[in-house]
Hints:
The complex is a heterodimer of chains A (347) and B (172). Chain A is of the alpha/beta class.
Amino acid sequence: MLGRTTARVSQIMTGKQELSPEIALALESVFGVPATVWLQREAAYRLYLASADTSAIRRRARMYELAPVREMQKRGWIDSSESTDDIEKELLRFFEMDSLEVEPAIHGAMRKTNPIAPPTASQTAWACRVRQVARAIPADSLGAYNESKIDACKKQIRKLASYSAGVGKVPELLASFGIRFVVVEGLPGAKVDGYATWLNDDTPVIGMSIKYDRMDSFWHTLGHELIHVQHRDAAPIDGDVSDPDELIHGKAPIERRADSEGAAIYVAPDELESFIRRVGPVYTTERINQFANSIKMHPCIIIGQLKHRGAIGWSKFTKISVPVREAVIKSSITDGWGKSLFPGVVK
Amino acid sequence: MKPRRKKGRKAPDKFEKDIASMIAAYVADTGDQRWTRDKVAAWAIKKNKWEQRPISAVRELSRIIGRVARQVTFVDDDGNEVRKYHSFQLGDEQPRLWSSIDAITPEAMTASINDRRDKLVDGAVKMVIDAEHYDKHYNTGDSIRVETDLTKDVKEKRQPGLYDDVPPDDDD
């Protein structure tokens, strides 16, 4: 009657074939319903389909905004799949969330290159991975965490920091004090050094990225995170940046405290100030080594602290730097640099 | 009020005054405010402002002996470099005598050590006065904090110049 094949009519009825003005006119002549009505309905239907497509794009965009999906798949943190539903399911599992409409939570304090900026997607994913990997450490391989023993822990850390080979003993020492220590290689662009978090009230975790393969950076970050653990600095990192005073000073108070108290684990501030006053502004390797021998602290750490205080330039004494990454990951639960964990133990 | 010269410090002789004038003339002539001794000496000779002054052979050799005697050292059982010859005066009007460390009496050694210490203190006093003067008249930044307690420096300077990269002894 319409002058079209049955198959064509069926395609139009199921929406697989667009309704053309010619068909609309044919329908008008058969059913008496104006062609404009048919075309309006067709337009409304096509609009509905297009909006459904946009919603799927929006959903996918949201996932990629929340997380570096491709990098996480590459590292095996989430299953590899192209399906939007699968990726969403994996992200919800990874971030332990019910909905992607909220931001993933960071349970703890993170030491990153820009301390006042909210954490990026890569930083957040890295922090969540630290927690996952830390959870995989068997509880019976650790001592019980006891707040009153943290000073003893700091004292032991100081001893390890005084010689190059000490870095390899850090995981064992922290475990004996009930602190889980894990190393997770950073994701590309995730400018993060360390992270202190709590799995529960009695289970502190220190995660490190060893972004810089340098002894001074390693110990400074470790000291910084240990102070966060000592003070239970568990506020989400982006919870503090709205305070204008903190924006002015550049770092949140808890970060500044972690920097100063962390540095004091290795070199008493008055000792360093005295050294700067007596020797600066020109420092020789011999004079730094003599000071290092005198207080029994590795010269790399002294040089790092002098650089942080602006007493010497960042480009000075680079030849004295000692690499640590290999020694640390050899003795630590590590995710990265080709080392991975069985998927089952971190899901 | 004119400041009093410290007791025991002799006034500069004509020769020393000439040298001081030479430095001032060099700075005025060249405008160089960060000079080296070599640069001033080369300038003075080029400008014919320097003539080798006549000096007796004995006086010249005596001065060299004094300089060299202060530099003669040996290494003791603990690995420390120790000065062999020490000078001392047993009174204001007495000649300066020299003895080797294995022959000097305790009284003379005490006098020698305290004489050297007194020179350190003189240097410290001058250093403080200079820093204070600089702070008062020229310093546009923070005051220079002069540390006169040498205890930490002595302790540090007795340490090896290479770091002993081993675990600490007190591993309790």
